[in-house]
Amino acid sequence: MQEIIIDIMNNYGYFGIAFLVAFENIFPPIPSEIILTFGGFMTTYSKMGIVGVVIAATIGSIIGAIVLYLFGRIFTKERLGKIVDSKIGRILRFKKSDIYKAEDWFTKKGKLTVLFCRFIPIVRSLISIPAGMTKMSFPLFIIYTTIGSLIWNIALVCLGALAGNKWMDVVDFIDKYSKVCLIIICILIVVGIILFYKNRKNKKHSTAK
User: Which of 93, 118, 131, 160, CA to CA, is 20 to 30 A from 81?
Assistant: First the structure.
């Protein structure tokens, strides 16, 4: 995978960077740290500049985010409600009211969520889907996505340029950061699920009384 990414960037320059970053946003498992840090390294031996690489990467980020946002608009809460009403939803004990609560939360705090999640691997891409599902204002979505993506892209491209031919050291560091983030996310999800069912159980007991 790494060799393919580097070949595309070497052969197609800015266009290759924009394409790869857009693709990475739609398919999160593709490592953005390789694209961005190698892009920074390329500025040390090619005609490409840091500003150009950052702009190309940010354009790619926005395109990828828009695709997932539109997917979220198609995959509406009504469709999600059908899944909740299905056998899978009953097994997990989810209710339609849970969807509306999640929607209300995202409507109130979704703006900052979209911004700050751009710094968290994998989540930085997937956050576009709930933004679309809750019909977050498209202009605001673009603004927050652009700001968050721009900061992330500047940081990694500049680190790649500073590291030079040791750009893989930056990739290794970001990889460790990604793993820590994923562990924390998994822990938060488990804790969230436990609290969710505990809260529901307490409500049932208080209703029974």
Answer: 118
